[in-house]
Amino acid sequence: MRDEHRVLLSMIIPYSSIRMRQLFSITLILLLLITTLPNSVGKIESDKTYSYIIEFTSPSLLKKINFESIDTIGESIDIHSFLDLLINISNYHQSALEKIRDRINFDIFSNKIDHYRLLLNGIKIENLSEKMANEIASLPFVKQIEKDIKLYKTDLSNYSTNKVISSTTNTIFSDSSNTIYDYSGKNITIAFFDTGIDYTHPALSSCYTGGYDFVNDDNDPYDDNGHGTHVIGITAAHSINITSNITMNGIAPNASIYVYKVLDEKGSGYTSWFLSAFEHALDPNQDGNFSDHVNIISMSAGNPSGSESDLLSTTAVQAVQAGITVVAAAGNNGPKMNTIHSPAIASEVIAVGASSSTNSITSYSSRGGTNYSSIKPDIIAPGHQILSTWPNNQYTTLSGTSMATPYVTGIIACMLEHNPELTPLTIQTMLHSGAKSLGYNVSEEGYGLITNDTFQIMEALPTIFSATQITNSNTLLINLSIQQPISSITYTVHINEINHLHTNVYTVENQQSDLANINLNIPLKNLITGHYTITITLSTHHTYTCIKQIIYLKNEAKSSIYIPKIVQAGESFYCYNLENSSNLPTLFLFVVPFRSIQVKIGSNPCFTTPSFPFIQKKNISAIMYILSFDLPVHIQKFKILISDKSTFQSESTSSPPENNN
């Protein structure tokens, strides 16, 4: 061994021995400390208890009955059989509770237990530890178990005026009349799940029908927050003169309103309260007769970390399948993607995002993601700085998807007044077809903007429509079935790229047909992976029907990248690569002339626009370069408009961004 190696080894061995001895001593001290600590320290986490909602594998009452909607229950089952089913479910709950008690060795009957029978077969039990919950989840009759978490209202205090306005104030802004034609929601019932209502407000007193307070467990859903009163006013406030020259009214002022207080004075409430509200909406007077069920459920609240499979979403879907249209706020977590709240994330629930009063999407409105099976949000509607009712005979403006949701709720009430036979699915399809795209990505605007002065309520043919792409091909199959006799019909078909609305990929103009079924086999040349809009119009002598569907079409050899067309100065925005066949990273280069260059790598990068002293120019053009490593390697160029905060909401976004490959 060389001398220098011996010297080095002689230095390492003593040093290592010292380090090992120190480590052994520290470990021994820690073990002694742990074993001598009081037992209570180790039990802090395990002793913590929560409320849990337990869904059973046995179906709910409405699933046990073979019916098409709530209104056909009487045709499907007689009252005695119906009562027998209720008794059977109650007995099932009792038996399940006894088995749960035996499994966890805990007297659960000493706690408050809530029962769900109609849309969800389950219970809520309080004061359970996580260990107990895991034991319960392993029982064979338990389908799933969830913590009873808090949900929150979806308005934004930082986007509100924070100024309450009395009816004697002389300087306020209003959009004046919101009504659609001569419709006002007459004979339509709506249940609002919110903070309650100030039913003494002169603009709301005549529309309030009843409700329940699940926060305080009584029959008085009075609003101690203000959010619910504001939301309900957007839908159902009666025309009232706020000042000598300003009148405010809701979109459906003659609708009948049920209010279920599921949010407390701080605007938060538990999932279990919402589930109980769903049960009440099916049977408002709790007499066991569902004939008085509400037509619409409107929720300006949700769970930002929820999913399509959580209990809130699945219960909402059950309500839709029973014949009740459910409308829910998308959330206020934009511009980040994949931020839609539950239950709005559920495909059968109508998810509403927020636009400004000048037809651009608000930065805070929650965005969807790259789940191509479901377009979310469904639509966007005015939600920024909306004037509406406030407790104690007052008015104020608030912003958020909370405000956009009751706007759409009012429109749906008018649709149902025009045609009470509309199903929730048909209503959702009609809203999609009547929305106007603003040129945003589908994950931002869904099908587009709905406003009371652009949406048309019309007679429509009942149809069943499907569009599917043949696997591993650029061929699209379209099948359309008309569900009533026709003698002759004229139809047109247009297919457009979602971000290039004026570029027709495929067009069939004014084709005549005497058949109730239209089947098309469409070859799509030079297909680029991404979302496409299929628009079909059907016309007879008496009807005009427009059907719109957004579909994700895939070309294995090409990728598709989406970026926003207009962004606000000083704020963040996201880009994303919808498809990356090589699984290699994408390089994004954001260039703001004379200002900054930002480089990001990934499939969903976030960029921040610089702030400008907007003195002479109101808008500044920036460029986004995208280098995709798919073969062949190519660069795409997109133009992005950066707008001043004062003009961001007023900029038009109808033209598509520049895209030079």
Structure overview:
The chain is α+β, with helices and mostly antiparallel strands. The protein has five domains: 3-37; 49-148, Alpha-Beta Plaits (2-Layer Sandwich); 152-351 and 360-371 and 384-418, Peptidase S8/S53 domain (Rossmann fold), CATH 3.40.50.200; 463-553, Immunoglobulin-like; 561-660, Immunoglobulin-like. 23% of the residues lie in helices and 30% in strands. The chain contains 13 helices and 36 strands. It has a seven-stranded parallel beta sheet, with helices on both faces. Strands 28, 31, 32, 34, 35 and 36 form a six-stranded mixed beta sheet that branches. The longest helix has 34 residues, at 3-36. It is globular. 43% of the residues are buried. Residues 2-18, 35-45, 159-163, 166-177 and 647-661 have low confidence and may be disordered.
CATH arch. level architecture of the largest domain: 3-Layer(aba) Sandwich
Determine the mean pLDDT.
Answer: 82
Secondary-structure class = alpha+beta
Here the CATH topology of the largest domain equals Rossmann fold
Summarize it.
By secondary structure, this protein is α+β, with helices and mostly antiparallel strands. Strands 8-11-7-13-15-16-17 form a 7-stranded parallel beta sheet, sandwiched between helices. Strands 28, 31, 32, 34, 35 and 36 form a 6-stranded mixed beta sheet that branches. The protein starts with a helix and ends with a strand.
How are the SSEs ordered, and which strands pair?
Blueprint: H1 3-36, H2 39-42, E1 49-56, H3 61-64, H4 73-76, H5 79-104, E2 113-116, E3 122-129, H6 130-137, E4 142-147, E5 150-153, E6 165-166, E7 189-194, E8 208-213, H7 227-236, E9 240-241, E10 247-248, E11 256-261, E12 268-270, H8 271-282, E13 296-299, E14 301-302, H9 311-321, E15 325-329, E16 350-355, E17 379-382, E18 386-390, E19 394-398, H10 401-418, H11 424-434, H12 442-445, E20 463-469, E21 475-482, E22 489-497, E23 500-513, E24 517-523, E25 530-539, E26 544-553, E27 561-562, E28 566-568, E29 572-574, E30 576-577, E31 587-592, E32 596-601, E33 606-608, E34 619-628, E35 634-643, H13 645-648, E36 659-660
Helix pairs in contact: 7-10, 8-9
